[in-house]
Design goal:
Ferrochelatase_N; about 325 residues; globular; 11 helices; alpha/beta
């Protein structure tokens, strides 16, 4: 008899699949109180979310237009799920659940139930834990399980910022980026590890996100030849106190010092709006305006074989630990 099927579920943020989807996607995002707590409490969160998303949609649509009119996040996450399941073996079926756009957790859990599957490993594709991302996504998935398939036995992988195979794969990406640096720029080169910012209050309440980022960077640098590096935080918006330093300020400082820059997207495992538009577009334009003599970006992990192997090993460890 064949082994019963198991589900591999990868959790991610999701992104709009068309320009028309930008505003409702933003509304879903701003409605999540684990991510953003808008004023006047939970009762008015959704009305505020609709209002803010309406006014933000125009500029955000232009950002997505610059990268082809939609987010590539679903494409890459599906590739990661499919290829990881293939490495795990024929008794694994791949699923993807997005937090703010399709396919949503309820739809995915129902599909798992229809396949007759009663065991799943659920992996957050945010390697560094915060309640705003991993915490929200896992809570959302657990609610879907309780509502639609309470018999589903799930093992959750919530953070893996120091997983050696992940660090190996990320270090390989950095080496590829370093190979593109002109010889004349290498002596003065600075690596800028850029992670998505969080409001500082998340760190002050005890989220380990910043510590996890720093541990990942230390693990990657331990695998590389000596090179000067800094950590910055990007995608800051709104009138709150954000994690520092701001990646943009570090770019300006590099320009003032005449230092070439190679940016490493450290909190992102796939290309999406923050790598393709913010780093490749906005950061590059800022670097040119500030006099940075050379600017480059390390490739994202995407479906790199070493990264897929790292995910598969992570799942195997979770399964063996539960036996």
């Amino acid at each position: 008899m064949s082994e019963p099927k198991k589900a591999l579920v990868l959790l991610n943020m999701g992104g709009p699949d068309s320009l028309e989807a930008v505003e409702p996607f933003l509304c879903n995002l701003f409605s999540d109180r684990d991510l953003i707590q808008l004023p006047l409490g939970a009762l008015l969160q959704k009305p505020f979310a609709r209002l803010i998303s309406h006014f933000r949609a125009k500029s955000v649509r232009e950002n997505y237009r610059r990268i082809g009119g939609k987010s590539p996040l679903l494409h890459w996450t599906q590739r990661q799920a499919e290829e990881t399941a293939t490495l795990l073996g024929g008794d694994w079926l791949p699923f993807v659940a997005m937090r703010y756009w399709a396919p949503r957790a309820a739809e995915v859990v129902q599909a798992i139930r229809q396949q007759g599957i009663d065991e799943a490993v659920v992996v957050s594709l945010y390697p560094h834990y915060t309640g705003a991302t991993t915490g929200s996504s896992i809570k959302d998935f657990k609610q879907a399980v309780a509502a639609h398939h309470p018999a589903l036995r799930c093992r959750y992988i919530e953070d893996w910022h120091d997983w050696p195979a992940y660090l190996d794969a990320l270090a390989d990406c950095v080496r590829e980026g370093l190979a593109q640096v002109p010889a004349a720029q290498r002596n003065q080169l600075q690596l800028l590890f850029s992670a998505h910012a969080l409001p500082q209050k998340f760190i002050e309440r005890g989220d380990p996100y910043q510590r996890h980022i720093e541990q990942t960077v230390a693990g990657v640098m331990a695998r590389l030849d000596s090179c000067e590096h800094q950590i910055g935080y990007q995608s800051r918006s709104g009138p709150v106190r954000w994690m520092a330093p701001d990646s943009r300020e570090l770019i300006r400082a590099a320009g003032a010092a005449g230092r070439p820059l190679l940016v490493v997207p450290v909190a992102f495992v796939s290309d999406h709006i923050e790598t393709l538009e913010e780093i490749d577009g906005e950061f590059r334009e800022l670097a040119e305006a500030c006099g940075v003599p050379w600017f480059g970006r390390v490739p994202a992990l995407n479906d790199r074989p070493s990264f897929i192997a790292a995910l598969a090993a992570l799942v195997r460890r979770a399964v063996s630990a539960a036996v």
